[in-house]
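Sequence design from tokenized structure. All designs in this work follow the same two-part layout: the structure record, then the generated sequence. An example of the structure record is given first.
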């Protein structure tokens, strides 16, 4: 399966590194410098127990979007507006997977005409150290639910098994987004206090 990932922050790099072990992954960063470093060094994940590097391809060429079989949108919620035109130009038959916190991105999603749109909630902890390295400091699930269309369009991803990077599907996207929103509201306050 050819997977494109828009965004090379902590989540984009984390997903690229794990998924790149099994799938043909192309990262779409914002900057030329980061693209060059990823193509030269790969993406490195540091955990408590180990460090590993995965070779993935990075490009700024937006024509590559339509060569993918899945596009994962891994930019922050507030950056979606900057890439809205790019998302709109992705062929409608290519499934889109949105990995934003909160619910504001649903306004954008609602206006898209894509056949299959999936939303996700991430329980992993990830900290970007530099342009090619992420610390995977919290292992959890990625919860996925269809917003529109069939989630089985991404069955190669759903059937893939990795001990430290698992997916679980749900029927109701509202439930997983709301639960994540509530958890973030509590954790962010505790983090600020402690």
């Amino acid at each position: 399966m050819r997977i494109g990932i828009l965004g090379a922050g902590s989540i984009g790099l984390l997903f690229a590194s794990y998924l790149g072990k099994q799938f043909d992954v192309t990262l779409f960063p914002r900057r030329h410098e980061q693209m060059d470093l990823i193509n030269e060094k790969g993406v490195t994940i540091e955990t408590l127990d180990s460090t590993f590097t995965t070779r993935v391809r990075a490009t700024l060429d937006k024509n590559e979007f339509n060569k993918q079989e899945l596009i994962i949108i891994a930019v922050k919620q507030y950056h979606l507006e900057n890439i809205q035109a790019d998302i709109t130009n992705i062929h409608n038959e290519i499934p889109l997977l949105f990995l934003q916190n909160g619910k504001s991105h649903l306004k954008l999603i609602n206006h898209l005409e894509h056949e299959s749109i999936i939303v996700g909630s991430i329980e992993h902890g990830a900290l970007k150290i530099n342009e090619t390295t992420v610390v995977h400091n919290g292992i959890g699930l990625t919860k996925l639910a269809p917003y529109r269309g069939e989630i089985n369009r991404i069955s190669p991803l759903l059937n893939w098994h990795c001990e430290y990077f698992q997916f679980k599907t749900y029927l109701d996207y509202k439930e997983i987004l709301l639960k994540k929103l509530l958890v973030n509201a509590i954790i962010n306050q505790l983090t600020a206090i402690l």
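The longest strand covers residues 141-148. We note this feature because it recurs in several other targets discussed in the main text.
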